[in-house]
Design goal:
Layout (H helix, E strand, L loop, with lengths): L19 H6 L8 E5 L5 E5 L7 H15 L2 E6 L3 E5 L3 H4 L6 H8 L4 E12 L2 E14 L2 E10 L6 H18 L1
Antiparallel strand pairs: 1-2, 3-4, 3-7, 5-6, 6-7
């Protein structure tokens, strides 16, 4: 664990303020949900909440099924990181934090079909030139993540867009 040298007092209602510097470094936004854990050593652990992360095995099965049919890279992200990947990008993208650009697309619930190669930054420090589809995952009105389908050979079509929408709608219903 990394020491910050910052000390905070718990108020009479049991609240504690997470310093702005730490929220900024960890990209924790106002109104965001955090999970609270207690480990065996009496430590309190805060972690960004992700409904999709709890279903990572299921999400991986979904990406594998989609990839087996269309042979394009398939990625599922939550608000902060890559949850599941199928295709050649799996080793370099799995469990990586998503870029600020991708966080913004998720937060804005952007639904996109890019048929001509374009630069996209999914994870930090990795920019791809590809065609792609983004379909948002919305749970109870909140942006929870997205399904992405990518191809470096300009092969993305309307069918891929519909497959991504079916996958995200399925996750929407399943997680609600």
């Amino acid at each position: 664990m990394k020491a910050t040298g910052i000390i905070r007092r718990i108020d009479e209602l049991g609240r504690i303020v997470i310093p702005k510097e730490i929220r900024k470094a960890l990209r924790i936004k106002d109104g965001e949900n955090l999970e609270i854990y207690v480990d065996g050593a009496e430590n309190i652990i805060l972690r960004k909440y992700s409904a999709i992360r709890k279903m990572s095995d299921f999400a991986q099965d979904l990406t594998d099924a989609i990839y087996s049919l269309i042979k394009h890279n398939v990625i599922i992200v939550d608000n902060h990181s890559v949850i599941a990947v199928s295709g050649p990008l799996k080793k370099e993208y799995m469990h990586k934090d998503i870029s600020t650009e991708m966080e913004t697309k998720v937060f804005r619930r952007e639904e996109m079909l890019e048929r001509h190669s374009k630069r996209v930054n999914i994870v930090n420090d990795k920019v791809l030139e590809c065609t792609y589809v983004i379909s948002p995952i919305v749970i109870n009105g909140d942006a929870a993540g997205a399904i992405l389908i990518l191809d470096s050979n300009d092969q993305i079509s309307d069918i891929d867009f519909k497959i991504a929408k079916i996958g995200s709608n399925f996750l929407n219903v399943h997680l609600e």
